[in-house]
Write the structure tokens for this entry.
Amino acid sequence: MPALSDFSLASAVTAPSVGHPLTPAGTRLRSDPSGTRATIRLMPVNITVLNHGPIRIEGDFQILDPAGAAFGLAGRTTISLCRCGHSANKPFCDGSHARAGFSDAVAARDLPPPKPKS
Ligand code: FES
């Protein structure tokens, strides 16, 4: 069995389907009726900046600390990150934005092109 770092799409497609240890983050394996083959379905991640509140992330994702360690999310597929700075549980929202009167309405807009890297 290949190591996780050796994972490839080809091995995923033929991997056993249920609870396979080679399933990378951001994918779902679904078995065919025989249970002998699996199909990878990449799950989109949606990030929504809420008016006067947190940044909500939905889908299959990981949240990493600066050292690259993943937060244990206990299977959550939706989580909110604080953007007001008042949460006692940063980086996660704990609802303090409402008590603090955080106010920032959001509307999507286009950003300018990135500056060329020197
Ligand atoms: S956005 Fe909710 S506590 Fe900061």
